[in-house]
User: Which sequence fits this backbone?
């Protein structure tokens, strides 16, 4: 159930048409979960500042059941920041990524939780 959410002040017209697809591909390579469970959400055109300026910036969160942790997140940070920098033009010094290791019983899908 990997869910990638990105809030950014990058305008919608600067988001590549294939951004959702390429982001899913990046997540699949990182996490190896079945593709049917990935969700990618981007909110462009947000009123945001980072370090006191309104240059391109992003607040990113990745939620997943497993595959996250101290060592894993080091690699995930590099991979996601490189992807966001190359596709959206947001520098790694202008974004934060929050990782949320979800519990199976706390995520619902298809009328049940992943713990069932």
Assistant:
């Amino acid at each position: 159930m990997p869910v990638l959410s990105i809030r950014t002040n990058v305008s919608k017209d600067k988001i590549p048409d294939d951004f959702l697809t390429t982001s899913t591909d990046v997540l699949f390579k990182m996490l190896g979960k079945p593709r049917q469970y990935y969700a990618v959400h981007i909110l462009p055109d947000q009123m945001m500042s980072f370090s006191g300026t309104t240059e391109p910036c992003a607040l990113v969160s990745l939620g997943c059941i497993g595959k996250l942790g101290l060592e894993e997140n080091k690699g995930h940070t590099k991979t996601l920041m490189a992807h966001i920098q190359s596709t959206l033009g947001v520098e790694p010094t202008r974004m934060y990524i929050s990782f949320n290791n979800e519990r199976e019983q706390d995520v619902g899908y298809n009328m049940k939780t992943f713990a069932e």
About this structure: The chain has a mean pLDDT of 97. Residues 70-88 form the longest helix (19 residues). Helices lie at 19-31, 70-88. The radius of gyration is 15 Å.
